[in-house]
Design a protein that fits this description.
By secondary structure, the protein is α+β, with helices and mostly antiparallel strands. Helices cover about 15% and strands about 35% of the residues. Helix 9 packs across helix 10.
Length: about 600
């Protein structure tokens, strides 16, 4: 079988031409290492031939899977769907492949096509003409400023604030070696301004995600640049950005597929692009992972996910290790793999979320956790879109309205895990027979229980009034209150609840500790009101505790063996308390019956 290459394409591109989707052959592939910039992503250089000439080309990192999958073996014939060509020092031309398709795999091509000769650069040709080929060897190539050549379009020439014009560079071509460039990019996500303070000083910063038709990149502005641009930047707008510092990206905090991230400097300039010139810049880029595949992905990975909101939990509150309360809300997402995953929203996102009418929800950069099998968490750097106007969202809308809403989907977030769980239903006998809490990490489970007794003694204490501190205060002789943790004295305090309750179900019983929010749910009153009753009306205080007995709830529990004063005991505490939803409880019982019948 013979294959026809685009003769003359290599020399045409090197000379500044823009042949449309040329067909070339891969003669070699080599992994290269940079001794100057360390990245966690491999880079590959291909040797390409058009049958007449051969020349090297760099493969964009997002195409590395083609090498790893064996799609670019020697002799493979490919079509260059998208590429750019840059001019570096000594008039050298470097091609970067941004998109390709395989015309014929190497195993189907018998041999090298044609008799290609290495393409000579214009600089080496000029040296040969002047010195007969016997002159001094050319200097090592040092990356310098780039001149962009687009296939099928001429470069845009934005006017800079200084009044001049500069060529637009694709994001994919940016490297730390460059310092004179301008990009035209759309802001797809913008983080909140954050203040920081450490031993070296204090300051502020905000980050944004940028995209053009070649790639994405994360950009961060600090201090003066943060104050200058934070109010100006709007999500969805297109901007010209010039001058900045590029460094190796920290992939732990972003799902953007770029080896580098951009930091604004004092020389950075950012101007709004006219709307008529912004239409060619794409919107946010997603790389969705089906929910059914999340169990095979390594935990702590940042992923893009899309699904239909199947159910929404109420807003709850947790206390962080820094003793700061933050609101959270659990959302169940389902897709056409018939799998459900729990996704957690935090803070204002949790409070304002509206899950009515089962919207389609797309999240870019959610963190995957093994908390309860597999679960997702939305980060400050994540982007959330409701009912986005993209094909995948339209497909899921039709699937859910047609068949998905009536299907019984399987949750991947309700399995037992030492890291925690969002459901993991157990009765109290199973908790003991399965030895929950005796591992290295705490176990989490959900149970339906009835409260039969609440200890009133030591059920509350006077705490530091600071919003970020819940430590117990001591009363001074002058009537003020001192917090040892904050090392401050206050004129007032706040009450904090700490209940010990005895729970039972049909199988067994369990003592558990309930903290502030869970205790207020059980007693039906706020801590300050109950504290005032204890001091002024003991009868009403006792009545509140009596009325709380013999009521049933769904408890989410944490259980762990702990040692205190050389005494080891099993400690069980509640992380969430919800009144019974009889409709949902009935659905669960029906599912339990069906599962038992299938055994």
């Amino acid at each position: 079988m013979s294959f026809r290459l685009t003769s003359g394409a290599i020399e045409n591109i090197a000379g500044g031409g823009q042949p449309d989707k040329p067909v070339v052959q891969v003669l070699g592939c080599k992994k290269i290492n940079s001794s100057t910039v360390q990245t966690n992503t491999d880079r590959y250089r291909l040797l390409l031939s058009d049958g007449l000439k051969s020349h090297s080309a760099m493969l964009a990192t997002q195409l590395n899977t083609n090498v790893l999958n064996g799609d670019l073996d020697v002799r493979t014939v490919i079509r260059l769907e998208k590429y750019i060509c840059n001019t570096i020092a000594d008039n050298k031309r470097v091609m970067i492949i941004l998109g390709l398709s395989v015309v014929a795999p190497g195993c189907d091509v018998q041999s090298k096509i044609g008799n290609p000769m290495p393409l000579q650069s214009s600089s080496s040709s000029a040296a040969a003409a002047q010195g007969g080929g016997g002159g001094q060897p050319s200097k090592p190539i040092q990356p310098a400023s780039y001149e962009k050549t687009y296939r099928n379009e001429m470069p845009k020439l934005p006017t800079t604030p200084g009044g001049g014009q500069s060529k637009v560079f694709p994001i994919a071509s940016l490297t730390p070696y460059q310092n004179r460039w301008t990009i035209k990019a759309r802001v797809t996500n913008k983080g909140k301004v954050r203040n920081w303070s450490n031993s070296r000083g204090e300051g502020c910063l905000f980050s944004m995600d940028l995209v053009d038709d070649s790639a994405e990149i994360r950009a961060t502005a600090f201090n003066d640049q943060c104050r200058k641009y934070s109010d100006m930047v709007e999500i969805g707008k297109v901007y010209f950005i010039s001058k900045g510092s590029l460094k190796t990206a920290n992939k732990q905090y972003t799902s953007i597929k770029n080896d580098y991230e951009l930091s604004f400097t004092n020389d950075t300039e950012m101007t709004l692009c006219d709307e008529q010139d912004a239409g060619d810049i794409p919107t946010i880029q997603f790389d969705f992972k089906p929910i059914g595949t999340l169990e095979s992905i390594e935990k702590d990975t940042l992923i893009d996910v899309i699904g239909v909101v199947k159910s929404v939990a109420e807003v709850t509150s947790i206390t962080t290790r820094a003793n700061k309360e933050i609101n959270k809300r659990a959302i169940q997402l389902v897709d056409d793999t018939d799998k459900v995953v729990s996704l957690t929203l935090w803070g204002e996102d949790a409070e304002k979320f509206d899950g009515s009418n089962n919207p389609v929800m797309a999240v870019k950069g959610a963190r995957l956790s093994d908390f309860g099998g597999r679960s997702l968490s939305v980060l400050q750097s994540s982007t959330v879109q409701i009912n986005p106007d993209i094909p995948k969202a339209h497909h899921l809308r039709g699937w859910y309205d047609g068949v998905g809403c009536a299907k019984e989907s399987q949750s991947i977030s309700d399995q037992r895990s030492s890291g925690g769980a969002s459901t993991n239903w157990k009765n109290l006998m199973e908790v003991k027979t399965q030895n929950l809490g005796y591992g290295e990490k705490p176990d989490y489970f959900t149970t339906k229980g009835t409260i039969i007794f609440i200890k009133k003694e030591n059920s509350m204490y006077k705490a530091c009034p600071s919003a970020e501190c819940n430590k117990k205060v001591s009363e001074n002789t002058d009537g003020s209150y001192r917090c040892e943790k904050c090392n401050k004295e206050y004129q007032d305090f706040k009450y904090r609840l700490l209940l010990n309750v005895n729970l039972v179900d049909f199988a067994d019983g369990q003592w558990a500790t309930c903290f502030q929010q869970q205790a207020e749910t059980i007693l039906g009153q706020k801590a300050d009101f109950i504290g005032n009753l204890r001091d002024t009306n003991e009868a009403e205080f006792d009545a509140i505790f009596q009325e709380a007995n013999f009521k049933s709830y769904n408890f989410r529990m944490r259980i762990k063996q702990e040692t205190y004063n050389d005494e080891t005991r099993l400690k069980c505490s509640t992380t969430d308390v919800k009144p019974l939803d009889f409709k949902e409880q009935s659905k669960k019982l029906i599912m339990d019956i069906r599962n038992l019948a299938a055994m």
